[in-house]
């Protein structure tokens, strides 16, 4: 199974480092590696540092923070060959980088795959930057590439300005989830995806994320991937992530499903993985019971070819 990479992008000063600092201060539910451009900009609490070796810092919460310097491939190879490779990688892109190019490069690197593109957007300045004749195209491309847009510094503007900025962001990328990121805090299950087979961590109480809801589904039979693909392609925008394992009815193989927004994929999973999917959605009108039944209907009554 390949290691998922979440690409964190956004223009200069958008708050990417603040998001990374908030992540490192948490207790992730998986073994993490964070690849950053400017190691000196990351403010790691000294009490969290377990060891330091050159441009690599290991934290007591299981995270590893590394500087990628100028060679992303070398950094990824080193992570893959380490005695305890990460279960997830958060990759910080340069503020002036094209996220699609990096996503193609990192997402196809041997042993890795792209999980999602998360774009940090500064609520105070993003529209001004997008109107700039020199950097506007880059800023808009970062927004259009996103699966998730983390709206930073919304606490520094009037509520009406934050709402109008959100509408403007959706005008550029209607498929992306726009979520507030006060002080860089983004709900872990949104940033990295839910951990299959385990309940998602609760939202932080001081975040305006109280509308997020989680559904767990454990298939009792093999799943028809064609039916499941149709269901996933028809998911409303309120469904932000779906992730988990199931047995493919056609092949009899354990399969990993990962969906972010409208994009989803199936890949091989360890035979020892336990069936179970997690769905994260938002909005009080989201009928999770209906979708639970819809997932149930994707199960196949025809025996799989092999087990």
Question: How are the SSEs placed, and which strands pair?
Answer:
Layout: E1 3-9, H1 16-24, E2 32-36, E3 49-53, E4 56-59, E5 64-67, H2 72-81, E6 88-92, H3 99-107, E7 112-122, H4 126-131, H5 136-144, E8 148-152, H6 159-172, E9 177-180, H7 188-191, E10 212-217, H8 225-233, E11 239-247, E12 254-260, E13 263-268, E14 276-282, H9 288-296
Parallel strand pairs: 1-6, 1-7, 2-5, 2-6, 7-8, 8-9
Antiparallel strand pairs: 3-4, 4-5, 10-14, 11-12, 11-14, 12-13
For the structure shown, list the relevant keywords:
Rossmann fold, 307 residues, 5-stranded antiparallel β-sheet, globular, 9-stranded mixed β-sheet, Hypothetical Protein Yjia, Chain: A,domain 2, alpha/beta
How does this structure look, described?
- The protein folds into 2 domains: 3-191, P-loop containing nucleotide triphosphate hydrolases (Rossmann fold), CATH 3.40.50; 212-296, 2-Layer Sandwich (Hypothetical Protein Yjia, Chain: A,domain 2), CATH 3.30.1220.10.
- It contains 9 helices and 14 strands.
- A hairpin with a 2-residue loop joins β3 (49-53) and β4.
- The chain has a 9-stranded mixed sheet, with helices on both faces. A 5-stranded antiparallel sheet has the order 10-14-11-12-13, with helices on one face.
- The protein is of the alpha/beta class.
- The longest helix is centred in the middle third of the chain and has 14 residues, at 159-172.
- Helices cover 26% and strands 28% of the residues.
- Residues 197-210 have low confidence and may be disordered.
């Amino acid at each position: 199974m390949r290691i998922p990479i979440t690409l964190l992008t956004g223009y200069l000063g958008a708050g990417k480092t603040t998001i990374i600092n908030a992540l490192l201060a948490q207790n992730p539910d998986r073994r993490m590696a964070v690849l950053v451009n400017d190691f000196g900009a990351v403010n790691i609490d000294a009490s969290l540092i377990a060891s330091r070796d050159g441009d690599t810092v290991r934290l007591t919460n299981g995270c590893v923070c590394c500087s990628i310097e100028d060679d992303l491939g070398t950094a990824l190879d080193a992570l893959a060959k380490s005695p305890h490779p990460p279960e997830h990688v958060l990759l910080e892109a340069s503020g002036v980088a094209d996220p699609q190019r990096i996503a193609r490069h990192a997402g196809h690197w041997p042993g890795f795959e792209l999980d999602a593109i998360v774009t940090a957007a500064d609520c105070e300045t993003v529209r001004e930057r997008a109107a700039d004749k020199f950097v506007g195209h880059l800023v808009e491309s970062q927004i259009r590439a996103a699966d998730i847009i983390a709206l930073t510094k919304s606490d520094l503007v009037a509520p009406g300005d934050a709402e109008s900025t959100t509408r403007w962001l959706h005008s550029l990328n209607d498929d992306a989830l726009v979520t507030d990121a006060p002080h860089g805090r983004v709900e872990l299950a949104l940033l990295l995806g839910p951990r299959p087979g385990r309940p998602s961590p609760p939202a932080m109480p001081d975040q305006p994320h109280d509308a997020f809801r989680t559904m767990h589904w454990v298939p009792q039979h093999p799943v028809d991937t064609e039916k499941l693909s149709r269901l996933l392609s028809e998911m409303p925008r309120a469904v932000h992530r779906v992730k988990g394992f199931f047995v493919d009815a056609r092949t009899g193989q354990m399969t990993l499903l990962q969906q972010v927004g409208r994009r989803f994929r199936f890949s091989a999973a360890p035979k020892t993985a336990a069936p179970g999917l997690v769905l994260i959605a938002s909005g009080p009108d989201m009928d999770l019971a209906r979708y639970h039944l819809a997932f149930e209907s994707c199960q196949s009554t025809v025996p799989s070819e092999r087990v």
